[in-house]
Amino acid sequence: MWIGAALLFCATLAQGAIIPVNTNITSDTTWYSDNTYNLNAQIRVTSGATLTIQAGTMIKGAKMDAGGKASALIIMQGAKIMAQGTKANPITFTTQETVTDVNVRGLWGGVILAGFGVITNGPGRTNTVEGLTGVIYGGSDNNDNSGVMQYVRIWHGGADVSPTGNPENSGNEINGLTLAGVGAATTIEHVEVAFNLDDGFEMFGGAVNLKWCSSIFNGDDAFDTDEGYVGKMQFIFALVDNNGNHATEMDSKINKQPRSFPQVYSATFIRSSNNSKDPNDGLMRLREGTGGRFGNMILMGTAGSGIQNADCGNETR
């Protein structure tokens, strides 16, 4: 985690040449740490291609492209990202905009990985990432491999990837890191999402595991699971301020299979205040029939309940 130090580095990490990224990545490509890469569109790494990002590289996303859509980096099914930062030289995704005290969230899109993992009503079923045409996820392989993200920071994202009418409230605001149908052979470790307009991390099905991940001051939920997600989360941290809602929002689809079954151990969840109209709204909200295993957790907050369980399924064991 890089709490406190995060914002201090914003103005000092950029170096070398500024490389505009305007088109999809269709063959193996390396981004080098002595350059800054400007995402000026929704960039897709297509099937068969691997994007390698060196430790210490800075990537800056545009708030919107020529069509009014937020920039994003999208790893399609069959593609890979190899983003292996280090503690001393993390990889940073941030915005091209000027960040101020009142201009801190929704300043570009985010990072999306789409895999072949099992989702609700699977195996074999697929779905499309909300707001993105042709970004398919889901399948039959919960051990699918979308690559590696280690020591990565994703800041100031959550802008609308597909505005319709009101670009600030279409429902297509993007998560900091979206893991859609991503398999357990993918490595997600030491990843921080901070100051995102929507969720920090969201997992739609699949079985990807998270370790040493932090979600800080994001605008909705810190960690969100749905559509039959059955992965593990260990050593995770959430800090929810008065702009956010929950440390976890864990959903399933009532009695549809596979049932979401996240497993969370060694977690610290802190909420500074409760924005919900429901005074019993939980720091952890479990609903729509989700299952799960939870242990060794610290929950702290000034309002609401610790855990709220609603909308249970009707299966018995």
Describe this structure in words.
This protein is mainly β and 317 residues long. The protein contains one helix and 24 strands. Strand 11 (127-128) and strand 12 (136-137) form a beta hairpin. The protein is globular and about 55 Å long. 53% of the residues are buried.
The level of helicity is under 10%
Radius of gyration: 18 Å
Structural class: mainly beta
Summed up, the helix count is 1
Spans of at least 5 consecutive residues whose pLDDT stays below 50 are 1-14, 166-170
User: What's the end-to-end separation, in Å?
Assistant: 39 Å
H/E element sequence: HEEEEEEEEEEEEEEEEEEEEEEEE
Q: How many beta-strand elements?
A: 24
What fraction strand? 35-45%
Major β-sheet annotation: 13 strands, parallel
**Mean pLDDT metric:** 90
What overall geometry do the principal axes of the alpha carbons give?
globular
